[in-house]
Amino acid sequence: MKLKVDQLSLRFGESEVLRRMSAEISETRVLAVVGPSGGGKSTLLRVLSGLLRPDEGQVLWSGGPMSFREKDLLAYRRRVGTVFQAFNLFPHLSALANITLPLVKVHGCSPEEARQRAETHLNRFQLLAHAGKKPGALSGGQRQRVAIARAMAIQPELLFFDEPTSALDPEMTYEVLEAIREVREEDRDLVLVTHEIGFAREVADELWFLHDGKILETGPPQQVIDQPRTEEAQRFFERIL
Ligand code: ADP
Ligand code: MG
């Protein structure tokens, strides 16, 4: 993907959450976004995935500028997959139905095709034995893998992950990172907000350090993590590494 974020601004009431944020990448498969909590990472991801409209500025993907008109956003959201921190499955539906329902209702699949796609993806993430269980009967790691399987089953052009492991203990974190590695093997672009810096270093081609509504550093992960130029990034990486 190519991506350019140009002077993005977004306010929630009085508080300015994205502050004329700009950055640019080209030929990147996996973009990782890191930085301190409250800096605007989730907000940026919601703009990029078509869930929030910025007050000012532009987003340009490989194909051109993103349209933030309601009608265009609805179409755009069908082409991207999103996996959030936690609690994004329907609690009253089985793992299988969590995957088939959006395929049928939003993506126009026949029930038969939806079932086939769901089973393929459940199998791929070692979840077939859990197909009939509701989220409450699954572990945190299994739930996140169902969420990833659901996002993959729609065959999105782009996948967004927002701290998919931050609610998990280390063992389950490992399972979910393995699932993301598996996703990365495919020819699919990912944008990943994460606090797993070692993982970001391993899987990302490009890393953005976001602080207080601005992108302060961009570059290859090794470079930004090992030789941060700004004091803010130095402090952040010192504290967490
Ligand atoms: P991060 O993901 O980096 O932790 P967020 O994008 O979630 O940061 O939040 C950035 C800032 O915006 C925070 O100060 C947060 O409290 C605020 N914020 C986020 N969402 C909302 C909202 N829906 N309404 C009001 N303030 C919000
Ligand atoms: Mg966040």
From TrEMBL:
<dbReference type="GO" id="GO:0016887">
    <property type="term" value="F:ATP hydrolysis activity"/>
</dbReference>
<feature type="domain" description="ABC transporter">
    <location>
        <begin position="3"/>
        <end position="237"/>
    </location>
</feature>
<dbReference type="InterPro" id="IPR050086">
    <property type="entry name" value="MetN_ABC_transporter-like"/>
</dbReference>
<dbReference type="InterPro" id="IPR030679">
    <property type="entry name" value="ABC_ATPase_HisP-typ"/>
</dbReference>
<dbReference type="InterPro" id="IPR027417">
    <property type="entry name" value="P-loop_NTPase"/>
</dbReference>
<dbReference type="GO" id="GO:0015424">
    <property type="term" value="F:ABC-type amino acid transporter activity"/>
</dbReference>
<protein>
    <submittedName>
        <fullName>Amino acid ABC transporter ATP-binding protein</fullName>
    </submittedName>
</protein>
<keyword id="KW-0067">ATP-binding</keyword>
<dbReference type="InterPro" id="IPR003439">
    <property type="entry name" value="ABC_transporter-like_ATP-bd"/>
</dbReference>
<keyword id="KW-0547">Nucleotide-binding</keyword>
<dbReference type="InterPro" id="IPR017871">
    <property type="entry name" value="ABC_transporter-like_CS"/>
</dbReference>
<dbReference type="GO" id="GO:0005524">
    <property type="term" value="F:ATP binding"/>
</dbReference>
<comment type="similarity">
    <text>Belongs to the ABC transporter superfamily.</text>
</comment>
<keyword id="KW-0813">Transport</keyword>
<dbReference type="InterPro" id="IPR003593">
    <property type="entry name" value="AAA+_ATPase"/>
</dbReference>
<dbReference type="Pfam" id="PF00005">
    <property type="entry name" value="ABC_tran"/>
</dbReference>
